[in-house]
Amino acid sequence: MLLWLESEEAPKCLTLVIEIQPINNTKVLKAVDSGVRVQFLYPEAGKKSVTESHLLLVVEDGYVEQYHILLAKQEGYRVVSFQQWIWKCVKKRFFGMSRSIVHGRLLFQVIQNPDRLAKDRVAEEISWVQWDGDTQRLFFVTSKVRQALCSCGLLADPALHSTLELPLELPRDSFPSMSLLFCTPGSMCVCYSQPVCTNEDMKYTIAFVHRGHYVVVYLAKHFLHLINSRQQDLPCFSLFLSGEDIRLGPSELDSTVLSLSQATLLDPQKGHIYEADLSHSFLLDLLRRSGPDIQRLAALHCLLGHVGPDPDVERQVVEWICESVMPLAAFDQIQEFILASLYRTIHQQSPSLDSMEVLPYSSVFDKKDQPVDLSNIPGVRCGSELLSPPGFRGKARNLQGYWGELRWNIERIKYFEAVPNPRFRTSIIQTEYMSLLAEMNSEDKKPANRLRHIEENAKKVLAMVDTWHLDKKVVPLFHGEDQHQRELIGLMVEKLREHMNRHLPRLGKNKIEKLVLSYVAKLLELVRHMLENMWCKYKLGPQVLSVKQPGGAAEWAVFHVMTRILEATAGLSLPLPPGYHTLLAVLGMRCLPRHTFLQYVDHGLLQLTDPFVSRLLTDLDNSRANEELKFSILKRLPESMEQKICQLWDHPITSACISRTYVRGLLEKQDKTKGGSSLLERDKSSRYPEFLPLTYLAKILSDLESQVLNPFEGQENVDAKFVEETALKQTMIELGFEDT
């Protein structure tokens, strides 16, 4: 077996390669005054026979060498007898090597030509180095050409080596506290800080090679910062804690804490390893506190975007929103709840960088001016700048696994930073909808094909929603026809699909279709979930749909939350579930004074849907007050809807309206059989009700009059002078200036 030992008793640090058999076959690799670290490389996975061992030697003078040691197989040596002794040596002082490396098969190898060991110079002029055993890559900071972080992949075949280079502007003396962090596949960041001094500011820097996860920066008894690398440009999405809020672990950690893989922390002095996680109860407590809005916004996104699908957490967040339903000074909590939850949903289905870069993350980005409350962090000064993009050198195209994903993510970041508006903006939905309405109301050919496609999109989404939580649907939604919302739903599917196909062709059309439908369906489900929470809290039942009785405190609370949901979704141009406006109008009818209700209708806050008006006309009697209300409702309806609704109310006025419509239809039918055209064109300027038979007779006489021959028609030779003199003489006679 090959083993490294460091001699601490000699004047120099000796790095040796000792061959266990034959005895005393020792090769001195390095004898220097400074420290030396050595790391064996893993053999190729699945390779039965190892003919060469690779050894990294890191010298604190500032360079790294790689030794290539040829091996020859020799049978007959016991494995167990040497392994226990070797493991004791390894545990005493070994740099970055796991126990799995000390494998029995290596004990059967002996060195070929120990006097001539081949070596390569891997790096020079380095000031910091770190080895990643999982990916077998060496990370180091060099200033040979320019100050940069480099990553060198050390594989068995040198021809496949590749190097990642990230330009950095490092402060002096940062390397003793510099570390490299790996998150999930395809992500990486570099953290470094200046030495901590008493009564002075602590300064640290995080360079993100690829964004997408949280990074914890912790200084015992001082602060704990949870940096959101997905949105590192805006500090309002990062959580900055100090004082009593920085408790880490079951007990306070006073010593240096090292970050390990898989979200674990190592306390080297106590010898403890902790698994790091976000505390749901603590983040919920931050929401309920009367603290700064910037802390609440960060806590909300931590809960919704990174905790994971926890129904209990989501329920408590909804309760907090309903308790403090009015928007906060710096942000709208309902808008943030919707967008952050949708963002998490797609991330769970497609955790790659691509989908995360094109979907809306927060409503803060749509504001022209960022609120001051989201810029000022008590006790913290922070800023961001765009670094030069990292680059790969060597056989970068052959990268696989982690590094292949990282390279792809880096290229995608360059793309998203170059193209305009890569993130989907929901405001385009309302713009497209207004354009669609203009097309429908124009005299040109109606966009029938597009309307059919939009309706098909809406049907797919609503069919998906109908299959969810069939046993928990206590809120009367998704039952009534609401063509306006159906068109918005279908239009959102269309525009989001176009956006994702434009920027994410790698996902494929089928995957994008599934993500888009799931996204819009989850939006409708979130609204239903908020109402479901209110329904259960106030124990509302089917009787809430009755307009006969005035609403109580429970109905008023639900109406207030629903108007806030309407305001929040309208601000983002998002659709609502079909039936939402009907339910809101019923609650408004029960909770508001009638003149206030009509004002809400006139200002567009409440909509007079078919189901609501039908329920109003059939449930209320014909008392004087109710008649006035019904007439006020009817005159606010469009003509097409008015004719349909009048048949539901047994009243002389509606009977006259029905009779007038029936007579008009008969006369128009008769007119068409005679070859006429538009015989009954209604005079919309008249404010008096029309009498259809009289109108019909007047139209016939007018047509007959137009058919009478003009006595002057056909006469070509007319004495104009004679006509003029005759007219003048007749005028003077009429005025009494001449006798007849």
From TrEMBL:
InterPro entries: GSAP_C_dom (IPR028010), GSAP_fam (IPR026172). Coiled coil: none annotated. One of its GO terms (biological process) is positive regulation of amyloid-beta formation. Signal peptide: none annotated. GO terms for cellular component: trans-Golgi network. Residues 524-631 form the Gamma-secretase-activating protein C-terminal domain. PANTHER family: GAMMA-SECRETASE-ACTIVATING PROTEIN (PTHR13630). This is Gamma-secretase-activating protein-like. It comes from Scleropages formosus (Asian bonytongue).
